[in-house]
Each structure stands twice: as structure tokens, then as C-alpha cells.
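Suppose you are handed a protein chain with no further information: no name, no annotation, nothing but its sequence. What can you learn? This example shows the usual starting point.
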Amino acid sequence: PTINRYRDNRVDIVGGFLRHQSSAFNGGFIVAGGVRYDIVKFRLQDKRNAVQTGNPALNITENYEETAVTPNIGINFKVVKTIRAYVNYAKSFFPDSQNVTAGTLNKTNEGGFGWDYGFKVGLFEEKLSFTIGGFYISRTNVGVDDIDEETGLTFRRQIGNTLSRGLELDANWRLTSNLTSTFGYAFVNSQVVEAGRDLDVVGRQVTRTPEHSGYITLRYGWNEGRLKGLSANIGVTYT
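A reasonable first move is to predict its three-dimensional structure. Written in C-alpha cells, the prediction is:
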């Protein structure tokens, strides 16, 4: 039989994380930040030719390292007694070990960065509390298929990019001492920006990322009597 793919890939990550948080004005202003430093060790083997032909000498092995520095910072401050505002920024990385092959070029970690911002509100003596905010997230260095202009052959390049923007609402409403409701809604505009040779998907919604989603739940908890400590829940979600 023809073997199209036979890889044995392993990734080890060693790193450290430093974080600090400070507050002022009796907690009215809070700032927190941190940074991660990671060493990503790839151990890649492409066994397809070796297994296909039965010749172990055709087994391709490659060991290499990538580093990643990913900072983050967040600010949270009181606007009025019942409203706090926040803004956060963070970078990230992802070692996509499943889509890299030993012996090929252009291998690096996937990356990304994002902002989220909004308000946290508590009303009616904190019986109703909700967070409403927005986000802006870019995913970079995604592995995509591209065409070599000189040879016309397809090869893997990490030039893919997606951009996600949207709004989110999450709320908790204590209707009575026994009955609580949670509900929320999200709008996500997540588009493919760069996809190599697959030009048709550029500008389209990212796969498995719903544009609209929402949920509502009701929870009833018994606070006294024989059923004290017992609760019942019912909920509906939409995507």
C-alpha cells in the first residue's frame, strides 16, 4: 500500500514566568503584568520513505529549538462605585507539532497577540452583575500550503494569518434568594487574512467559529429544609 504520511514528532517546552501586580487608591486602580520565556525543543522524524521502502537509512530526523517571549499586561480601575473598566494585552505562541515535517524549511512557532477591553458593572446591591467588552485578536505564523513559483510544487509555509474582532456580554442576575439566572451573547467577526494558495477562503469566516452565539440558564437552589444544599439547573445555548 502507498503511505502518504508517517511522522513521529515530539515537542518539549521548558520555560519560566514572572508576574507582578500593584494596586493604588484603595484598590481603585490595579495593574498586573508578566512575561514568559520558553524554549521549545522539537524532535521530528519523517518515516514515510523508510517504511515505504523498508530502508531505515531513508528515515529523516531533525532536532532544533525555538524560543518564545510572550508578555502580558492588564489595567483595571474604578470609574464609579458600580462600574470598573479594564483593558488587557497579551502575546501567545503555539508549537504546531502535528503540521511540521522533518527536513523542510520555514518552521517556527505559531504566534498571536490580542487586546480585550470593557466594563464590569454591578447593580441593585450586586444582585445584577455583568461584563460587556470587546476584543481584537490576531493569529500569525499559521502553517498553510503554498506554491513554489519556480517549481510549481506545493509546500508548507507558516505565513497564514487570521483576525478576530467582536463583542461579548456575560451576566449573572440573582432574582431571589433561591433563583439565579446567567445569560450572555457574543458576536465574533473572525476572518482569514492570509491562507497561501487557498485564495478562496481569504475574507471568509474562520472554520468552526460561529458569528453569533448566546446562552441563558436558570438555577434554583434550596436554602432550607430537607433539600438544603440541593440545586436544579436548566439552560439553552445557541450558535
